[in-house]
Amino acid sequence: MAVLVYGAGVCGSLLAAHLYRAGLDVSLLARGRRLAALRRYGVQLAEEDSTTVRRVPVPVVEHPDGGYDLIAVTVRTHQVDAVLESLAGGTGDVLFLLNWAAGARPLEAALGPGRVLLGFPPALAGGTLDGDVIRYRAGSLVTRRIPMPIGAPDGRTAQRLDRAVRTFRTAAIRARAEPRMDAWLTTHAAFEVPLGYAVHAAGGPAALAADPDAVRDMLHRMRRNLAAMATPPVPRAFGALQTLPDRLLVAVLRRFLRSRTIARSGLDDTSPASTAELERLTDQLRTAAKAR
Predict the structure, then answer these.
(1) Which of 76, 145, 166, 215 is the most buried (most CB within 10 A)?
(2) pLDDT of the residue at 263
(3) What are the Cα distances from residue 13, in Å, to 79, 103, 134, 262?
(4) How far apart are CA 260 and CA 200, in angstroms?
C-alpha cells in the first residue's frame, strides 16, 4: 500500500519516519522551507534534550499527486479547508488524523462519499519542533499501550477501514477500529479547548498547575462542553470529569500538567497557528451544540 502523510509538522514527520523505518511505502508532503530542509536532511529526530540527531530519509513530495492508496492528513484544524481543495477529485482513502469536532459531513462534501476516515494520531507522534529537528518524548509502557483510534463516518468496520488499521499495525502502531469516532473526536475537543486556552492564559502548563483556581475554572469549562454534546463522552472515562468531585479532579489535573507527558506535548505553543486551531475547534463545538 502506498501511503502519503500530508503535513510535515511534528505529528506528520514522526508518523512518516516511523512508517518508513517499518518498511512501508510512504512519502511525506511538505511545503516551503520545511520542504527544502526535508529534501536536504530527511526527517531529523532527537530524543528529548539529546544531542544525538538521527536522520530518516523519508521520500518528500510537494503535491499530493501519485495515486496513493491512503492519505493520512496531519495538519491543524484550521488548515483542513486548503487540504480538501488540493485533494478534491483524487482517489484513495483519506484519513484525517487531527483535532476535529465538525463530523465527517463537510469532509465528505468536498471529497465525495466513501473516501473519508476519521482518526487521531498515535501516542508516538508527540514532540516539539526545534529548528528542523523533531524532539520527541521517549515512549513509556503506558503510552505504548494507548491505541490509535480510526473510524468510518457511519461507524461500520468497512473493508477500507480494516485495510487502514492493518497498515498501521504492520508498523507496530496499535491502531484499532473505533465505531464512535465522531463522538471520540468531539470529546477530545471538549477537553482540549479549555485546556489549551487555560495554558495559554497562565503562561504555560507549570504556571497553570500552580494556580488551583484557574485549573478549577478550566474543569468547569470542560464540563460545560461535555454536557453540550449530543452523545455520551467517548472514551467513557471522560465521564469522570462530570461526576467526580472538584477537589479530586483539580488535584489530578494539576499533576497531569506537571507530568513529563506535557513537557514535549507542544501544549505551551502560543504561536498564531496554535491560536487559530483553538479558535476553529471552539467554533466547531459551538456549532455542534446549537445543532442539538
Answers:
(1) 215
(2) 65
(3) 17, 25, 8, 19
(4) 18
